[in-house]
Design a protein that fits this description.
Layout (H helix, E strand, L loop, with lengths): L8 E2 L2 E2 L30 H38 L4 H27 L13 H8 L4 H15 L5 E2 L7 E2 L4 E2 L5 E3 L4 E3 L4 E3 L4 E3 L4 H30 L8 H32 L3 H5 L3 E2 L13 H9 L31 H4 L12 E8 L5 E7 L26 E5 L5 E6 L1 H4 L4 E2 L7
Antiparallel strand pairs: 1-2, 3-10, 4-5, 6-7, 8-9, 11-12, 11-13, 13-14, 14-15
The structure holds zinc ion (2 copies).
Length: 440
């Protein structure tokens, strides 16, 4: 929990284990911004780029080729030839196989072609701001300047670098939203980056993580189904009772390949199931995020297993099995379990990254006492926008019966409502605590 103390300075260079604090303070000057100086013209650049694209796409071609061949091996060799004596098995296997085949390719395609989520333009620093950062002469001045710039830009983040500064990407010259990281392969910052996957030739991030999960799921089901239904014919091959010519070799190999892939995908899939239930990306599994209070917390984004699942797969169960966008939120801000505020997606889904314009208001809803009396109070707070207020509302309760489950409706700074519980017996009169982290 003390990873936030890891910052340090070596000579005049401010070190940054996360690669988030760039400032080489020994090279000041308002003209040190490199934006626009990148990508010098080069006649070899374009052909090399195509070659690199082709090489990076090879794993995708490989997977597609294997699956294409498996279609022939399963449908032609197995269903049409080997299962010729059992039409019911042919029909059932044909239906299930084509369903899994379709879902697999749909998920795979969506993972490949869906942009994982880039940082919006309004999170990128202006030339003036980058020049101001470059001119900073100490770490403190640099952090201070970045903080002011971030405030001015309305970048609202809860995560910090290990030095306690806003997280900044010197390559993209942008402030990193919570959970965003820079991908050196994609050469850009990716929202809620999980990892760069060569098998899909794409980053796995906020916008395609659900598709990636479904891709793993359907790939696993596809392989298990093929292995299970071809096992009997695989055995018959060795007993020499499979007389379908050369097609039987396809059955042998499709069985072996499906078993091989089942073993490989199995652990990866369950590892990501675990990460989803923990609300953790692969990167966060290796390095816990640092929050505003300088504490590292692996559980920081976790809202409980089911809520974590819904954060990725969405609120509508009907959409869970399909690779269509249904993840909750905007990828820029996330509810977290450390702070007891803004922990509902009602507000997050509408967040546009701007600074709140209205103060927090706490409205005490009607509370029915044991005597049937109804009492209300209404308090308006204008202090710090993100704090759950101590409203002192209990004193306004009428009657002499203590309410057992009084609640308050807290309007956050975006004007969205959230219900919290009041527990006077635990926190004293007027104590307000959020009942739980709720995805609404
Ligand atoms: Zn970046
Ligand atoms: Zn990438």
């Amino acid at each position: 929990m003390s990873g936030g103390e890891g910052s340090g300075r070596l000579g005049n260079v401010i070190t940054n284990p996360e690669g988030e604090l760039p400032p080489p303070v020994t090279s000041p000057g308002p003209h040190s911004s490199q934006r626009g100086a990148k990508n010098p013209p080069n006649l070899l650049r374009r052909p090399c780029m195509y070659l690199a694209c082709f090489v990076k796409s090879l794993p995708v071609f490989f997977i597609s080729g294997i699956v294409g061949w498996s279609y022939y091996a399963y449908v032609i060799a197995l269903i049409l030839y080997a299962m010729i004596d059992n039409p019911i098995e042919q029909v059932l296997c044909g239906i299930v196989y084509h369903y899994l085949f379709l879902m697999f390719f749909w998920s795979y395609g969506m993972t490949i072609f869906t942009p994982p989520g880039r940082v919006p333009d309004n999170w990128h620093l202006s030339r003036h701001a980058t020049a101001a950062l470059s001119a900073a002469k100490s770490e403190e001045e640099w952090k201070d300047t970045l903080g002011k710039v971030g405030n001015k830009m309305g970048c609202n983040t809860k995560q910090r670098s290990v030095q306690g500064a806003l997280r900044y990407c010197e390559k993209c010259e942008c402030i990193k939203p919570d959970r965003a990281h820079h991908c050196s392969v994609c050469e850009q910052c990716i929202l809620k980056m999980d990892h760069h996957c060569p098998w899909v030739n794409n980053c796995v991030g906020f916008r395609n993580y659900k598709f990636f999960m479904l891709f793993l799921c359907y790939a696993l089901l596809y392989c298990i189904f093929i292995a299970a239904t071809s096992a009997r014919y695989f055995v018959r091959f060795w007993s020499d009772s499979l007389s379908i010519g050369t097609s039987k070799y396809h059955i042998i190999f499709v069985f072996l390949v499906s078993v091989l892939f089942t073993i490989s995908i199995f652990s990866l899939f369950w590892y990501h199931v675990y990460l989803v239930t923990q609300n953790r990306s692969t990167l966060e599994q290796f390095r816990a995020p640092v929050f505003e209070d300088q504490a590292t917390d692996k559980e920081g984004w976790s809202l409980g297993s089911f809520n974590n699942f819904k954060e990725v797969f969405g609120m509508n169960p009907l959409l869970w099995p399909f690779p269509v966008s249904s993840s909750v939120g905007d990828g820029l801000s996330f509810p977290h379990s450390r702070a007891k505020q803004f922990n509902n997606y009602h507000s997050i889904g509408n967040s546009d990254g701007r600074v709140a314009e209205t103060p927090t208001r706490t409205l005490v809803n009607p509370i029915i006492s044991g005597g049937g009396q109804v009492s209300t109070s209404h308090t308006i707070h204008s202090s710090h926008a993100s704090s759950v207020q101590q409203s002192g509302n209990i004193s306004a309760l009428s009657g002499n019966v203590t309410p057992l489950s009084a609640t308050e409706v807290v309007l956050d700074t975006n004007g969205h409502a959230k219900t919290v519980s009041v527990h006077p017996s635990v926190h004293g009169l007027g104590g307000v605590v959020p009942s739980e982290v709720v995805i609404q």
